[in-house]
Amino acid sequence: MAIAIDGTPIQGTVSFGATATATNVVVGSGSNRVLVAGASWLNSTVAPTVTFNGSEGLTIGGAVANIGGFRSALWYRVGPSNATANVVFSWGGSEEAIGRVWAVNWTGASTPHGYATNTGSSGLPSVSVASVVSGEVTIDNLCHVAGNIAASQASGTQVELVNAGIPSSNRIGVSYDAGSTGTVAMNWTSDNDDWSIVAFALTEGAASETITIDKWLSREQAQRKRIVQVVPSGTIGIRG
Questions:
Q1: What distance in Å separates the CA atoms of residue 116 and residue 130, rounded to the nearest whole number?
Q2: Segments in the chain forming alpha helices (H)
Q3: pTM, 2 dp
Q4: Cα angle at 192 between 187 and 194, to 5 degrees?
Q5: Taking a C-beta distance cutoff of 8 angstroms, is the pair 170, 42 a contact?
Q6: Exposed/middle/buried for 22, CB within 10 Å: 0-12, 13-18, 19+?
Q7: What is d(CA 93, CA 129) in angstroms, rounded to the nearest whole number?
């Protein structure tokens, strides 16, 4: 079944604090749900733990990208509850993070793959996810030191979801690509400064099927149907 974004990313910020919250993130009733979240932060050296709806933990997608303390990461949860609830990022009681976070639900999806990171101190931010097949969606999260950014994939299928300031004048960028396959490069234009970027691809969820009474009866009849015939040897055979 086709992967689809279920709304728009809900964002939150933290400035010299231990937690950031994306408030009232809506996870609808669609099938094959995957909640995806991301963060770009500095000052804190640890990756936050991320939870939805109080107790549903999200898994970090691969590694944290880090250059000079400017960090990016993605998280996901397969099968989150159908609920409207907070996504909370917690760096720990003694940490003082500065950053911006976000979260959004997807339907028709399953566990991501192709976790990738990249960093740079000049040039254009870019990260590539390998072995993306038709029907999958590539998602990235960028942390950029000050300046301006914009998603800029040459194929034109990269859709910008978030382009916002992090406290202390830095930038976060989030985008997705639902149209490219193979090795998918997620590219950004930017001012010439430090950046860190992460990405993964959501796999397509298994198609669900609604079984009606008539369809069930038809299958039962087909399964039980046997034709009994007398073969030339005189034995009885059952042919399905």
A1: 9
A2: 213-224
A3: 0.85
A4: 80
A5: yes
A6: buried
A7: 34
- The answer to whether the beta carbons of residues 20 and 97 sit under 8 Å apart is yes
Q: Which residues pair with 236 in a beta bridge?
A: 230
Among residues 165, 166, 192, 184, which one has the least CA distance to residue 43? 166
CA-wise closest residue to 20 among 86, 106, 84, 85:
86
CA distance 163 to 172: 6
* Beta-ladder partners of 35: 77, 105
Q: Which residues of the chain have pLDDT under 70?
A: 153-155, 208-212, 214-240
Strand partners, 52: 56, 87
> How far is it, in rounded angstroms, from Cα 202 to Cα 112?
4
* Bridge-based pairing state of the strands 49-52 and 83-90: antiparallel
To 5 degrees, how large is the angle CA 30–CA 186–CA 19?
A: 65
CB 27 within 8 A of CB 81: yes
Q: What is the pLDDT of residue 123?
A: 80
Residue 33 near residue 111 (C-beta atoms within 8 A): no
Strands 19-27 vs 83-90: parallel, antiparallel or unpaired: antiparallel
Residues β-bridged to residue 27 = 83
229 burial via Cβ count (<10 Å: 0-12, 13-18, 19+):
exposed
Choose among 131, 151, 104: nearest CA to 7: 104
